[in-house]
Design brief:
heterodimer, A: alpha/beta, Rossmann fold, 7-stranded mixed beta sheet, 5 helices, globular, B: alpha/beta, 6-stranded mixed beta sheet, 4 helices, 6 strands, 20% strand
């Protein structure tokens, strides 16, 4: 099963997604692994703090953490495992700005390939993404391109997911 | 405790006042709320996100305040904008405000008996 979990900043989407993948995975063991794909690069104090907070949230839940800041299509995971990727907004930013600015269409196709790959490997896949579309601000060109990219990626996620859940202050709202 | 959230200008206060048959005298503005001095003689906190913004440097004041309303104010109604739905702000204080507000709202929602999101003046029960 594939689920997309979307929410704004501080919405409680991570905690919801972690609990849901655990529920879907059932009992975790050698033949039924539980992966957490972390996409945030530990640059700077704030990122480090955020990563530490997320580590703490996941503690004792049986996750194998795989750091993968880009190229998720090359990510090596056991087949038929349970995968939580957090989150699409970091991955999209890393792919777009990580190594010189890239065109949104190229990045979009690469991200779609990565999603397809994870979906083909995992028996359960949850991808967390961010709702960044509601502040009405017109940003500079590259930021607007990034917002469009994430919008496209989110639409693709919704298309290939069995379920899309929006999390609002810890309350899950099933969209599809 | 009841919580009403949504984007700005969606008619949240109007919706709550009509539903509850309360007058404007029951309302305190989040921007004016001072938990250290106020008497608590209100039933509705409007623009709660502005209260969080005012005390972003003193999270312990916010912590104390929400602990008190969770314990003692079953009747309270909190109205807040949703502010987490944009690009991560460049300004550090703005970033901290968004994060803190989200976490405070998660705590409040966990203890609330009723939560609605208002859009175009229409309520959608989410808890």
């Amino acid at each position: 099963m594939m689920v997309t979990v979307i929410g704004g900043s501080g919405s409680g989407k991570s905690e919801y997604a972690e609990n849901l993948i655990k529920e879907l995975a059932g009992s975790v063991n050698e033949g039924n692994k539980l992966y957490y794909i972390a996409t945030m690069e530990p640059y700077g104090e704030e990122a480090a703090e955020r990563i530490k907070r997320h580590h703490k949230l996941r503690e004792g839940k049986g996750f194998i953490t795989v750091e993968c800041y880009n190229n998720i299509e090359k990510c090596q995971l056991d087949i038929k495992s349970n995968v939580l990727l957090e989150c699409m907004s970091n991955l999209a930013a890393n792919e777009m700005f990580g190594n010189g600015i890239k065109d949104k269409k190229t990045v979009y196709h690469k991200i779609c390939k990565g999603i397809d790959k994870l979906k083909s490997i995992a028996s359960n896949l949850i991808i967390v993404t961010n709702d960044i579309f509601d502040d009405g601000i017109i940003y500079d060109k590259s930021t607007m391109e990034y917002i469009e990219l994430l919008g496209m990626a989110n639409r693709y996620l919704a298309k290939v997911s069995d379920r899309v859940v929006e999390v609002i202050y810890s309350c899950p709202l099933v969209i599809i | 405790m009841e919580i009403y959230i949504g984007g700005c200008s969606q008619g949240k206060l109007e919706y709550v006042l009509a539903k509850k048959d309360y007058g404007k005298e029951s309302v305190i503005e989040g921007a004016l709320l001072n938990p250290l001095t106020d008497s608590g003689g209100y039933k509705i906190i409007n623009h709660f996100h502005e209260f969080v913004r005012n005390y972003v440097d003193k999270p312990e004041v916010i912590d104390n305040f929400i602990r008190q309303i969770i314990e003692k104010r079953e009747d309270i109604i909190i109205i807040s904008d949703q502010i987490g739905g944009g690009i991560v702000p460049v300004d550090k204080a703005e970033r901290e405000w968004r994060e803190l507000h989200g976490r405070v709202m998660c705590q409040l929602v966990a203890c609330a008996g009723h939560v609605e999101r208002i859009i175009c003046g229409i309520g959608q029960v989410i808890k």
